[in-house]
Design a protein that fits this description.
single chain; about 300 residues; alpha/beta; 2-enoyl-CoA Hydratase, Chain A, domain 1; 7-stranded mixed β-sheet; two-stranded antiparallel sheet; 11 helices
Length: about 300
């Protein structure tokens, strides 16, 4: 029974364990950073921001909390000196809602200045959704592309709970209020209702992809149906525009942006350090306890 509860609460334990182990380290490194770099480095960054005319934004890891990425996109959109944005993607996808939020943020950004997406590793499902409205999608020759589909999963712990002597008590209002419960097998009417959600979301997904990429919805089994493609295969079915390296993607953005002397905005060193810690933490623990509708 102890092991059961240990596994059940592992995600929460993992997060608390990380905070306990590394919080003091992060605080210490933060203090060291400001002692070493002081205000001089901030001035350097400000000067760089004033003269930079191109910017790279990174979408890395599972798509769950996208507030930071949305903030970066909005800032790039509002910055008059930034003439184009490169979105570098290496993500397996994630939750539906934030993936759609990113997609339409990129669409709005594209209306103001060119956006080129570069798939440096995986651009699949939710992360592909987030990228569809860019001017061009360029994939690394070794990238995996696609997995355009929607899934909702859950476990059935009914037999396990019976063995260890645990039962549930439920008070509810609404026939479907217990849909997706892990404590028993789902009823047929619950499965049908959940399937309708999956189907409707999938139809939205393939419709947006078809519209953004100039494809036909009726041919969705060719480019979607949750298939995973190599970069070259993805180009054949119309999911990417080119198979090339990041240098090519940068050159493409420079041409679309029509900048005579391209200067790329550099990310603040401390911000980059913090982002790395957050991304690694989220990647390791967050997807463990996400049991919701996912384009993943």
């Amino acid at each position: 029974m102890f092991n059961f509860f240990k596994k059940l609460f592992y995600p929460i334990i993992a997060v608390l364990d990380f905070i306990t182990k590394y919080f003091k380290t992060v605080v210490f490194l933060t203090i060291v950073y400001f002692i070493v770099y002081g205000t001089g480095n901030n001035s350097e960054n400000n000067n760089n921001y004033e003269v930079a005319n191109l910017q790279k934004i990174v979408l890395f890891g599972p798509i769950l909390d996208v507030n930071k990425t949305l903030e970066d996109i909005q800032k790039a959109k509002e910055a008059d000196n930034i003439k184009g944005v490169l979105l570098e993607v290496n993500s397996p996808g994630g939750a539906v809602a934030p993936s759609v939020e990113l997609a339409y943020a990129i669409k709005e950004l594209k209306e103001v200045k060119p956006v080129v997406v570069y798939a440096s590793g995986v651009i699949a499902s939710g992360s592909y959704y987030a990228s569809i409205w860019a001017n061009e999608i360029i994939a690394n020759p070794g990238s995996m592309v696609g997995s355009i589909g929607v899934i909702m999963q859950g476990v059935n712990t009914e037999e396990l709970m019976a063995k260890i002597g645990i039962s549930t008590q439920t008070v509810k209002a609404g026939k479907y209020k217990e849909s997706g419960t892990p404590t028993r097998k789902w009823f047929d009417y619950e499965k049908e209702q959940l399937q309708s959600i999956i189907d409707d979301t999938y139809n939205m997904f393939i419709s947006d992809v078809a519209k953004a990429r100039g494809l036909k919805v009726e041919n969705h089994k060719n480019f979607a149906d949750a298939k995973v493609f190599t970069s070259r295969q993805a180009k054949v079915v119309g999911l990417v525009d080119e198979v090339a390296t990041i240098s090519y993607a940068k050159e493409k953005l420079e041409k679309l942006s029509k900048v005579e002397y391209p200067i790329w905005k550099k990310q603040d060193k401390f911000e980059k350090f913090i982002d790395k810690i957050i991304n690694e933490t989220v990647s390791k623990v967050s997807m463990t306890f996400v049991n919701s509708l996912k384009a993943y």
